[in-house]
Amino acid sequence: MKAVTLGCCALASLFLLSGCATKPLIIDPANTAEVYDPEPVRVEHGIASYYDDHRTASGEKYVASAKTAAHRKLPFHTKVRVTNLRNGKTTIVRINDRGPYIKGRIIDLSLGAAREIDMMKAGIVKVKVEILKPIPVLAKPNLKYSQAPKAKPKPSPG
User: Fold this and answer.
1) H or E element: which one contains 131?
2) pTM to 2 decimals?
3) Where are the domains of the chain?
């Protein structure tokens, strides 16, 4: 219980500190324990498409509702923020596949991610892809504390 409380306090402190920075921290709404540097590692612009049921290059089973994507070069498990430039909607996805292999396209999104940025009707849209840099201290708050051995209860008198 203490580890959870301390973790929440650390996360709350970072929210307060992020207000002092020029740009707020990027927090994945699907997993608030994941926090990213407000300055992306790199930004790409191009066309996004979406795909349905197939085997992923990482060996993971494709889950349509998951927020995942295919990219030609980024390492598996890299997190990126994808912005639909037509409507400004964003989503954070994890790279777990390779592609797209159609000229001019830079990312293929899962159905769940495509729905989140409202691109289903259009099929392909212009996007901005920001490669996110995790802040590791926040990803695992109080790791040492939570792994500490628990004290043995004292025997009751009598």
Assistant:
1) strand 124-131
2) 0.69
3) 40-132
